[in-house]
From TrEMBL, chain A:
Record gene name: cheW-2_2
SUPFAM superfamilies: CheW-like
Protein name (database record): Chemotaxis protein CheW
A GO cellular component annotation in the UniProt record: cytosol
Location in or out of the cell: Cytoplasm
Organism: Sulfurimicrobium lacus
Source domain of life: Bacteria
InterPro entries the UniProt entry points to: CheW (IPR039315), CheW-like_dom_sf (IPR036061), CheW-lke_dom (IPR002545)
CheW-like domain sequence ranges: 11-151
From TrEMBL, chain B:
UniProt enzyme class: transferase
Main location per the UniProt record: cytoplasm
Annotated GO MF terms: ATP binding; phosphorelay sensor kinase activity
Domain Histidine kinase: 360-569
Chain ranges passing through the membrane: none
Lineage, highest ranks first: Bacteria, Pseudomonadati, Pseudomonadota, Betaproteobacteria, Nitrosomonadales
Name of protein: Chemotaxis protein CheA
DNA damage listed as a keyword: no
Positions of region (Disordered): 282-302
Length: 159, 706
């Protein structure tokens, strides 16, 4: 995907969100909607970052808390807590983040390949690092991330 | 611009499947000795529709088979030949072939050409068999197989008048016109008489039509199927003498041209080049052998299968006319939306219940109205998914017929309550378990005719298949008047298999033993019951549908298998229970009773496992809060509620904080966006808009055992 954009020189629209002090970006086309945090029905014996399921207009949607998953920020739930409802791999998944910043366009030359991060986030889900003014954006391949084995969201994983 | 035909394929697939099903049910219902002409016509029409459709969409393999099928049917409906039992068998086989071909087109894959050939041969033989003075329409079959897309060969002789003969344009136009009908070969144009050969799907009349523009009838001659001469050897082997009668007649009409010898050669060469090698091998003996075993069973079979006294066929036909085809997704979407509406209505009702009834009288009136309308709407929408159970039942006359023939038993199948409606999803899943139960009844239940006579029974056994609504359930029964289950035999087998069996075990519990995996009391494993699908699979399938199987049996009198199923997979009667802050739904069908135990009734085993004594029975006690790792409001069973659950003959007591109420809940899948959760079979949305998990009782019992 990254190479593709470089060669075509096209721009990509990204929704940026914050987790702890970091700013992330994901393909806006994967976002269905953004909503507040609602009462969640817990599911027993699941990892802590899987908060449970909610009723999203009649469909059962699992909610993952990325702050817990990435050990970033504080997992507090109040009326300002934001859930990004994603539509990835034919599934609807809710993702709790610290906050949603804005929507930006990033051209291919603003994206640099990602160096190794260490343990916090696996580089295979990072498409690159983007630069907007002085901010650094971590571009995540949200589909790959959400369907990965680490997330325990799907039974058959894409890896 | 060409039209993409593939967009219409699905319609063809659906319609053809329907036609095939209709054909089959009509065929099985046919009275062999005096077939109903209307039925024969209906079968013919169905075959014809399939032929037309498959031709339009370019599925020529199906066109060929139906064409052959149609020929025989045509003769039958014109009463040129009498209907025989083996014809019905052949038709059913042809139906299977068509089904396989349809499936191959739909889902990819291949149909064994050998089988197709065999069945086609058989149909041809039957069509030709008893008809020495064969009429042209009955014999084009081999040609159909030989050249895909062309079903007949015509030898055309044409003596043009002087004007035409000298005008090459007119002749070329004629050839071009003929070529449009199919594959035209110009054999000999040197003499005054032109000889042409045409391989075409068109009939003789269409060829005549073309000639009629330029020639008088006496100027041309059209002879069909001469090209098939090589196949006459095949037919001769059977002693039908069809082509030998025919050929000299043609030669007489066309004497002295030395025409046929080269033709045969050309044909033979052509076939060799094409590698069909079809006529070289003698296909006759094999299919003939297939027909052979039938005769001794035929007369009783013919007597056995009278037209059943029901108007199922009529109803199928009439419903087809007044129905529309809608994709399941659309219906599911509608059902989902109505489910949402029901939930919203419940939410509003809950809020409205808090307002002052005097001040908001009108609002509450409106709420009442909304509630009724919503309920009606939900019912009607649910009923869209409902289909009469005859969709499954209709396949069984054939199953019974074939199996009875194979096992040399005389069996009559009675069906009751075919109009009973249930969810389409369930209907599809019911077919396999029911087939197994019926095969079982036939193989193990119904005795051989001699044995039945010796026991003073009617030599003809009866299997009854019935369906009825009973409360919120549908009850399907497969009963037979056969030998019944043998308690001693089952117990002996159980001991042999090392199954734990108490001495004073009740009959009901003995019968349940046959559901154990790999359990079979059959002395001899026949090809009927040795198919690897055991009763355990039946039971599992039924359980997956949220149903139960019960057995009643009396030695020498018969066996009755009763299947109880919920009406639909989309809605469930449930009991909501509370544990801590969570609400769960227990499917009502599994609940035996609820009780508040005395502290003294709770005992521990080995210091860990708890049991509760209920009327002398010790049941394992499972605390739901422990299974789901949640903090309960009540930690001692005698302060809370025990719900006794029963599944697969095992009982457990589930300890919960409180019972909240009984609801009809709309089942939502957890897997569509998440994954399977252990101990949970699905989710639903409660009146307050929150999600509640539906508990998987089977899994809970399993937890209790491990």
């Amino acid at each position: 995907m990254q190479e593709e954009q470089k060669s075509s020189g096209s721009t990509q629209e990204l929704l940026t969100f914050t987790l702890g002090g970091e700013e992330y970006g994901l393909d806006i086309l994967k976002v269905q909607e953004i909503r507040g945090y609602d009462a969640v029905t817990a599911i027993a014996n699941t990892p802590e970052f899987i908060r449970g399921v909610i009723n999203l207009r009649g469909i059962i949607v699992p909610i993952v808390d990325m702050r817990i998953k990435f050990n970033l920020g504080h997992a507090e739930y109040n009326e300002l807590t934001v859930v990004i409802i994603l539509n990835v791999a034919g599934r609807v998944i809710g993702m709790v983040v610290d906050g949603v910043s804005d929507v930006i366009s990033l051209s291919a030359d603003q994206v640099k390949p990602a160096p190794e991060f260490g343990s916090a986030i696996d580089t295979k889900y990072v498409m690159g690092l983007g630069t907007v003014d002085d901010r650094m954006l971590i571009l995540v391949d949200i589909e790959k991330l959400m369907t990965s084995r680490d997330m325990e969201l799907v039974e058959s994983v894409s890896e | 611009m060409t039209i993409d035909m593939s967009q219409f394929y699905q319609v063809f697939f659906d319609e053809t499947a329907e036609h095939l099903a209709q054909m089959e049910s009509l065929l099985v219902g046919l009275d062999i000795s005096s077939p109903n002409l209307d039925d024969l016509n209906a079968i013919f029409r169905a075959a014809h529709s399939i032929k037309g459709g498959s031709g339009t969409f370019g599925f020529t393999d199906m066109t060929e088979v139906t064409h052959i099928l149609e020929n025989l049917l045509d003769r039958l409906r014109k009463e040129e030949i009498p209907l025989r039992d083996e014809m019905v068998d052949a038709f059913l086989q042809a139906g299977d072939i068509l089904k396989a071909q349809l499936d191959a087109h739909q889902n990819g894959g291949d149909v064994d050409p050998e089988t197709i050939r065999e069945v086609c041969e058989r149909l041809k033989r039957l069509a030709v068999g008893e008809s020495a003075p064969a009429s042209p329409p009955t014999s084009p079959e081999s040609a159909a197989l030989e050249l895909p897309g062309s079903s007949q060969h015509f030898e055309i002789t044409y003596t043009p008048d002087a004007a035409t003969a000298t005008d090459p344009d007119r002749l070329n136009n004629l050839y071009a016109e003929l070529g449009r009908l199919g594959q035209l070969e110009i054999i000999d144009t040197a003499g005054a008489e032109k000889k042409l050969r045409l391989a075409t799907t068109a009939d003789e009349n269409e060829i005549r039509d073309i000639f009629s523009f330029i020639a008088e009838p006496d100027q041309f001659g059209i002879v069909g199927e001469v090209a098939q001469a090589p196949s006459s050897t095949t037919e001769e082997d059977d002693g039908y003498g069809f082509f030998t009668d025919d050929l000299p007649a043609v030669e007489e009409a066309d004497p002295g041209y030395g025409f046929f010898a080269p033709m045969d050669e050309i044909q033979a060469q052509k076939e060799e080049q094409q590698g069909y090698g079809f006529f070289d091998e003698p296909p006759a003996p094999e299919p003939a052998a297939k027909v052979e075993p039938k005769p001794e069973t035929t007369p009783p079979a013919a007597a056995k299968y009278g037209r059943r006294e029901n108007d199922k066929v009529g109803t199928v036909a009439s419903t087809a006319e007044s129905s529309i085809r809608v994709s399941v997704e659309k219906v599911d979407q509608l059902i989902n939306l109505v489910g949402e509406l029901v939930i919203t209505q419940a939410m509003l009702a809950q809020t409205a219940s808090k307002v002052d009834p005097v001040v908001f009288e009108q609002l509450l009136d409106g709420m009442g109205q909304l509630e009724r309308n919503t309920r009606d709407l939900q019912e009607s929408v649910m009923s869209i998914r409902m289909m009469p159970i005859s969709f499954v039942f209709s396949r069984f006359p054939r199953v019974v017929r074939e199996l009875a023939n194979k096992l040399n038993k005389q069996v009559e199948l009675k069906t009751l309550g075919e109009g009973t409606e249930l969810d389409k999803g369930l209907i599809e899943k019911l077919a396999d378990p029911l087939t197994h139960l019926i095969r079982n009844s036939l193989d193990h239940g119904i005795e051989e005719p001699e044995q039945r006579i010796s026991q003073g029974k009617d030599p003809k056994g009866t299997i009854t298949l019935s369906a009825a609504h009973q409360g919120g359930n549908i009850v399907i029964e497969v009963s037979d008047d056969g030998a019944g289950l043998n308690r001693e035999k089952i117990l002996a087998k159980a001991a042999e298999k090392g199954l734990p069996v108490a001495d004073n075990i009740s009959d009901q519990d003995v019968w349940q033993l046959i559901f154990a995996p790999g359990f079979s009391t059959a002395a001899v494993v026949t090809d009927v019951s040795g198919r690897g699908v055991g009763m355990d699979v039946v039971k599992r399938n039924i359980h997956e549908m949220g149903g139960r199987v019960e057995i009643g049996s009396a030695l020498g009198v018969g066996t009755r298998m009763t299947i109880r199923l919920p009406l639909t997979l989309a809605i469930l009667d449930g009991m909501s229970i509370g544990v801590g802050n969570e609400v769960y739904i227990l499917p009502l069908t599994f609940i035996v009773e609820s009780l508040q135990p005395a502290a003294a009734d709770i005992k521990t085993v080995a210091g860990q496992g708890r049991v509760v004594q209920v009327r002398g029975e010790y049941l394992p006690l499972i605390a739901l809060h422990q299974v789901f790792n949640i903090t309960p409001k009540i930690s001692e069973p005698h302060n809370g509620i025990l719900v006794l659950l029963e599944t697969e003959g095992k009982k457990i007591a589930l300890f919960v904080d409180e019972l909240l109420g009984q609801h009809q809940v709309v089942i939502k899948s957890m897997e569509s966006n998440y994954r399977k959760v252990p101990g949970v079979s699905g989710a639903t949305i409660m009146g307050d808009g929150k999600v509640a998990l539906i508990l998987d009782i089977g899994a809970l019992v399993h937890i209790a055992q491990s």
